[in-house]
Write a structure and sequence with these properties.
Blueprint: E1 4-8, H1 11-14, E2 28-32, E3 35-39, H2 44-55, E4 61-70, E5 80-81, E6 85-88, E7 91-94, H3 97-105, E8 113-114, E9 117-120, H4 128-138, E10 142-144, H5 147-157, E11 160-169, H6 191-200, H7 205-229, H8 240-254
Parallel strand pairs: 1-3, 1-4, 4-11, 5-8, 6-9, 9-10
Antiparallel strand pairs: 2-3, 4-10, 5-11, 6-7
Helix pairs in contact: 2-5
C-alpha cells in the first residue's frame, strides 16, 4: 500500500488536489487517509526540502504534481505529461512505471497524455530558443524546476516516484522574465508590482491573458487526474484484466 507524499510548488497547482484546502508554504497537510501535501514554492532546492519533509512522515511514495513547459512543438497547453523518466544534469531518475501506466490507463481519451522524458531546468524558460535547446540536449518533451529534485529524493530513499505535470506554456510562448518580479514564492501575484510592469510596458495585457488561459487548461487537466484517480492517483487501481484473472483463480480454487 502506497502512503503518498505530494509536492507542488504553487498554490494554483495544489488547489487542484483539494479546492478549499489551505496550503501554507513548507507545511505538511494531510488531504486523505494515505496522502499528504507539502507546498514547496518555486525551484529545485525548495522542492527537495519539501520532499524530505514528507519523508519524515514515513511516506513510501512521492509525487510531483503541477505544471510544466513544453520543450518540443508537439505539446500544447492542457496536455498531460506522465513521464517515464526524469533527467537532471545528465542523470536519469526512475519513475514507477507500473504506477504511471495504471494512472494513464484510466484517463479520458479526450485528454492528450504524453510519456517520454521530463527535464529539469534551474531557471524559468523564457524564450523559445531556451526550450528548444533543452529539448534537443535531453530528448525531453517537457521541463520544470522541481520534479527532478523530488525524483532524486525518492531514488535515494528507494521509494516509488510519479510525476504528474500539465503543460502550461507551449514551445512558441513563454512567460516574460520580468513577470518573476511580481510573483511571490507560492506563485501568487503581487498586484501592485504587476500593475507597475503593465504601466511600464514590460508586460502586456495580451501576454497576461495568454498566461491565464494556459494555466486554466493546465489546471483543468490536473483536476481531471484527481477526479478520475482520486488522491491515491490510481495506486490502488486494479486493471479489469487483472481483476478477471484473480476472480478466475478464486473460482478454480473454490472448485
Amino acid at each position: 500500500m502506497k502512503i503518498i507524499g505530494v509536492v507542488s510548488a504553487l498554490k494554483s497547482e495544489a488547489s487542484c488536489l483539494l479546492e478549499k484546502q489551505s496550503f501554507p508554504l513548507y507545511q505538511v497537510v494531510e488531504i486523505g487517509e494515505r496522502t499528504s501535501v507539502c507546498l514547496s514554492s518555486i525551484g529545485s532546492k525548495a522542492a527537495r526540502g519539501a520532499a524530505l519533509k514528507l519523508r519524515e512522515r514515513d511516506i513510501n511514495a512521492l509525487v510531483s504534481f503541477g505544471v510544466a513547459a513544453a520543450v518540443n512543438n508537439e505539446l500544447i497547453p492542457g496536455d498531460l505529461v506522465l513521464p517515464e523518466a526524469v533527467t537532471m544534469n545528465g542523470e536519469i531518475l526512475p519513475v514507477d512505471l507500473e504506477w504511471r501506466n495504471q494512472l494513464a490507463s484510466v484517463m479520458s481519451k479526450q485528454l492528450t497524455v504524453a510519456g517520454g522524458i521530463l527535464a529539469s531546468c534551474e531557471e524559468p524558460l523564457t524564450t523559445t530558443e531556451q526550450k528548444l535547446a533543452l529539448g534537443e540536449a535531453t530528448g525531453a518533451c517537457a521541463a520544470d524546476m522541481e520534479t527532478a529534485a523530488i525524483a532524486k529524493v525518492a531514488a535515494d530513499a528507494g521509494i516509488s516516484f510519479l510525476a504528474i505535470r500539465a503543460i502550461v506554456d507551449p514551445i512558441e510562448f513563454s512567460p516574460p522574465e520580468a513577470l518573476m518580479s511580481a510573483v511571490y514564492p507560492d506563485g501568487s501575484v503581487d498586484a501592485i508590482q504587476l500593475i507597475k510592469l503593465i504601466m511600464s510596458g514590460a508586460i502586456s495585457i495580451k501576454t497576461l491573458i495568454h498566461l491565464g488561459l494556459g494555466m486554466h487548461v493546465a489546471r483543468s487537466a490536473l483536476i481531471e487526474v484527481v477526479q478520475r484517480t482520486g488522491l491515491t492517483f490510481a495506486s490502488d487501481y486494479m486493471p479489469p484484466y487483472r481483476n478477471f484473472q484473480e476472480n478466475q483463480g478464486q473460482s478454480i480454487n473454490n472448485e
